[in-house]
Queue: 4 jobs
Job 1
Amino acid sequence: MTGTLTTAAITADDLEALARGAAVLGTGGGGDPYIGRLLAAQALREHGPVALVAPSDLPDDAQVFPVAMMGAPTVMVEKTPSVERIGDTVAALARHIGVTPTHIACIEAGGVNSTFPLVAAAQLGLPVVDGDGMGRAFPELQMVLQTLSGIGCTPMSIADEKGNVGVLQSVDNRSAEALARSLTITMGCAAIISNYAMTGAQARASLVAGTLSLCTRIGRRVAEVRAEHGDAVGAVAAELGGRVLHSGKVTDVARRTTTGFARGTAVVSGAGELVLEFQNEHLVARRDGVVEVTTPDLIIVLDTDSGEPVTTEALRFGHRVSVLAAPADERWHSPGGIELVGPRYFGYDTDPVRFDAREDR
């Protein structure tokens, strides 16, 4: 299929498309895709391509170690992570557990958190799993499908750019979030973590399969359609089975970094006024006061002309954008999934609204 990874490996030539697609699935969060691409390119130049393994091909006794950035995406624009710390964080957790990692994985789709694992995989000489723990990005550690599968977040390692490294053990996954968030704030609101270490059998059951291939396909499709002067926004919606919710100009952005998150709202004019509410990721979209779509489904902001994804930290007054709505992995719509990542968890007074619930309104 045009736009997919052509070999069972990720090379430097794949990174631009992969990072672009990851930022699309990141729903505004997951960190700056440009920074993530640069870090991955450096690692791949030094260590060579990274083998890509489908979750279905993992042996039962594989030892799969996710790695990610934790903190406010707005901070990482000015505080670039140390490349060396990414692989070191995985190694620290492996030493603590007493097992040898066989595979690296993404815990979420996002501009940085889909490329950081490539850095660790290249540094450690390990394959990366073609999947992730969400199918999108969410702001808190417990908000992964592994939690629904009963897999523990801890033990987890956490490190800053100075070389400080710690290993946490918590009573449950939500407690791990609270403890690690406090440490992340102390570490300057951005840290590297490795958590949810799992066996191959657990990874097959709990990961969203095909994430990295999907990211690359989306990224390449945007470039192809743009080169043909076509509708890149519509092409992304088609790839995701979603719909274009709104197009217009950003007329207001209120954003603040607090308790380790980038929180705020953005207003997009056009055919009515669409208000986006975000906590690292876009979680609720309201048109003229009516809720159009909420978490767990995806709310994605793209540059209208280019189709490039726009992260929450990059939203600016006057930016002409299109807002897409797309379906989440169906497991997120289970009662346990809604309890974990539904709009009420984040403090929004609304039941979940699916991406297509108001399409024919």
Job 2
Amino acid sequence: MTRIAFFGHDAADAAVRRRVKSFVGDGLEVTGFMMRRRDSDPEWENVDLGKTRDGAFLQRIAQVFKGARKAAAHREKLADADLIYARNLDMLACAFLAKRYAKLDTPVIYESLDVHRLLVRKDIVGRTVRFLERSLLKRSRALVVSSPGFIKNHFERYYAGQYKAYLVENRLSADADFGPRPCGDVCSESAASKKITLGWVGNLRCQRSFNLLCALADAFPHAVEVHLHGLPARTEIPVFEPEIDARQNVRYFGSYQSPEDLSGIYASLDVVWAGDFMEAGYNSVWLLPNRIYEGGYYATPSIAPAGTETAAWLQRHGCGFVVEEPLETELPKLIEKLVSDRSEITRYVNVLNALPEDIFIQPAGFMRDVVRTSLGGESAT
């Protein structure tokens, strides 16, 4: 059995948990070497590399060195691994430092799920961080990205020919129990008289998205209800609960378990917001968020800003709403249209139900094949 040492940025993060489950479901053995943003009790064997804080970049840099020392102190566990899998640039640096401290030559895969704002800066800071990424990328066995936008707009621009890339989208894991897909026409006569329920699910980290949804709630107090599921990034949305408390048609449900809670969440929604402006102009334009796959599986159409990789994905599959700028005026126009006539929601629901499941679910064995081919073996598919 192939053994993986997984260097993760947050042991409690839902996406980290999903990746571990996909490894284990594909028959791979995982030992975590992970930081944490809050206290957690991982389901896998885990070496705690210390606590970090959102937005605290200097603290996170210091923790990379401390974490590498802690990982190297568990040399036996690290040496048992056939492969090191490092998520995000800071954990890639931590993994290579741990290898050096422990005097190991284990191959490394770099998983980049976000292109951080520091990496796109034009000044000496940006050039320095890109120099670090280039040097570590060249020494990595493979690169994993969740969106082709990252390859086109970042890696090909700065490091062309210096990596072997795999596209691993943020799909649901094949081995997870997320229940059956819905069927039937959700926009029956009874549904047509109900409020439009718009959800924002996942990392709630975008002030502009929050403002847009609150404005929709104000514009349609009796026709629209906004549901928020996830944890807010306090560094990005400093005033959160007071804005929710001020509106009777905005409901905050807090954190959730994925995939266990997804069925209930999406069953309560008519549409899901899939926009992000936390890093507008680069990462937010290039990414493909979890919610388009989750919502797609549960036949909940997404709404995305035009000109983004997410909008291109929705248009390619013909399964969601794309809204042009300025969103402050165009998004309310769309919602007003849907309030008066839900037939377009019904049409997209039917499209989503007809799409193949592997658009939303990662096939069994997919991660095993990525690992096998990166290590020089043959793919099983």
Job 3
Amino acid sequence: MKDHVEVLVVGGGSAGLTVAARLRNHPNPPEVAILEPNTKHYYQPLWTLVGAGVFPKEASERNEADFIPPGATWLQDAAESFDPENNRVTTRAGKTYSYDFLVVAAGLQLDWEKIPGLKESVGKPGTGVCSNYDYNTVTSTWDNIRNFKGGTAIFTEPSTMIKCGGAPQKIMYLADDAFRRQGVRERSRLLYCSPKKTIFAVKKYADELDKVIARKGLEPRWEHELKALHPERKEAVFTYPGGEVTMPYDMIHVTPPMSAPDVIKKSPLANADGWVDVDKHTLQHTTYKNVFGLGDNSSLPTSKTGAAIRKQAPVVAENLLKLRAKEPLGASYDGYTSCPLVTGYGSLILAEFDYDKNPAESFPFDQSKERYSMYLLKKVGLPNLYWHGMLRGRA
């Protein structure tokens, strides 16, 4: 591989592959190289259903090589530093690549270590600590749910930005359903501990989710954030305005704090919060005009979801190609994102909204209502759209 490439895409996840595919599908495609160290690619939205016993985790896994777009070069390495002043990226293996255009789609990182007691206990048998947020721990969620004999089950959400903002609550609704099927719900408490003050940011969907919570007898603990675990005693420490409380648990599903990858945080591309600093409509970097950012590592003020990436990727591809042709940028992103809120086995509220938290729904019915059809969309339709449409640059 030569040291210079026309378009360098950093990250071969959902965002990187989708943009690369769209660029290569163009009638006059640019030369594209994708910098990605991992040999496996995961459809992470499926992990909620894996954690609920609907799918084996292997259903979410594919070979990265199968989704590198035709004509693109795969650099199986990771970014170590960015030098946008000189249009260069240095890799973990010590190689330096220069570029004409850079697309930064490096995802985010899970900061397990920020909660004492979490990293060493999550996914380990006997601890009761589980999480759907990692391929290596997701099956521990189902192990805990199906072996639950009653007691206290806690579900947490951090105050940081996270991928799939609805996932921390979705597994709680499924666990409630599972406990009822197993005959242990009557002797169980399900607590939802969140630093927020409401269940969802868009009122239309929050109102319906409040009804779900009431119907299921779930117990929200608003403005409560997990700060430490004592797995040997099965105790969780939460902070709340004005104090701290220790709660015992029999099972705890933890959504870890998340942040931009360290390589982004320490780079000139980052804003004060560590995210790739881009214009929220054009997705062009605010300082370096030949750089674009999208997906979970971006500063975009919207939920970090695959559905958001599906709308961001065409904007990045079109605007990059316009810049390449020395034409004005024409594509604009309105902040669209989607959160398929599974409320049980066979029911789902499909939340879709924009930057202004206005519903932006795709179907000719009220999507705030729980529907079996939308559950099937989540279970069958969206995975197929992802593998065969989105990653191929066709949807």
Job 4
Amino acid sequence: MKAQRGSITRSVEQPDRSIRFYLLYGPDDSGSRGLANKLLKALDAEKLALTGAAVKADPALLAAEAGAISLFGGARLIWVDPAGDDIVEAVEGLLEAPAVESLVVAIGGALRKTSALVRLAESHGAALSYASYALEGRDADRMVIELGRGEGLQMDPSVASAVAAACDANQSIVAHELAKFALYLGASADRPKELTREVVDLLGAESGEGDMMRLGDLALAGQANKLFEELDRVALSNSEAIPVIRALQRRLIQLTGLRAQIDQGKGVDAVMTSMGKALFWKDKALMQRLLSGWTSERLAAMLERSSALEKAIFFSDEPPVAALEEELVTIARAAQRRG
């Protein structure tokens, strides 16, 4: 079945047990992942990640995992990412199985409407498909307000608009930013706090550009010597540690979405071309190096590390710059070993 924009949120927040396969695709990769995370939360499930390549290599794997009972008895959501037409055989086996214990969600990226996987998901009663497109205007503002409510944040439309603009309406970046605002304010679902423009300006995504972004880029590129020189040049203060981490996180989120396209079979050059004017010409060599060197799994692990470091800095009495510099050097050395 094909879901519409007006019903997709309800479909993932209140999942119908007759649906066993969800295909979330479209050019807004962050929107697809956001919906998949809503489904994961609604099911109160453990995420079992499978790559499209693994499913292709063993088409029976998907139905087998979906039919298996969890070792600890809890719910599982089988998450296939990235997914393309090469998993059609496996999805057919899943849909033909007599029963399943776990639901399956697939992140399809920019699949064409003529895709065999899209056609299968749209035509089968036990499957649901939805194409995500970048939100604009009031739709983007509503998305920010809705995500903020889940973090215990209350805001007026002008603040939501500022957050959406700073994050280019990318739901993954918005979610990360709102989680940081909530942490700073001590907000939660049962203790809501107001998010003001002053807090957004102080801690927001745009506060980590320039030198802040360059430090993370040098680390990810494995350019340890240049990183040391840059750290000496900028002489970070303790108050600048968090903006540097956030600039690094923005780059990691950007790379994660682009790398997913490569995992689906696109070449690095084609992915970079698809960025259009969003990629500054001076950054082309850097982006090519990063996209060629970092896998999706390594990027996800690095994003988790950066989030853990940020939380540790918030609650530690240790000098934050020392912890940040140590992490940047660790990243640079890992990148060198990979190269």
